[in-house]
Amino acid sequence: MSHRIVVFWQSGFPTIASQPLTQAALTDALGSGVIFTSIDQLRSSAVLSDTSLLVLPYGSAVPVAAWPSILHYLRGGGNLLLLGGQPLSVPVLGDKEGSFTAQSQQDSYSRTIDFRHSYAVPLTEPNHFAWRNGYSFLPKLSVQAETVFAEEGHLKGLGYLDADDGTHLASPIIVSDNAGILPGTRVVALPFNPKNGYWDSPAGKSLIHTAAEYAAAGPTNFFIEAQFSTIRHGELPDFTLHLQQHQPSTLGSAKVELIEGDRILDTATLPIGGRDNDVAVHSINH
Question: The domain at 5-218 falls in which architecture?
Answer without folding.
Answer: 3-Layer(aba) Sandwich (3.40)
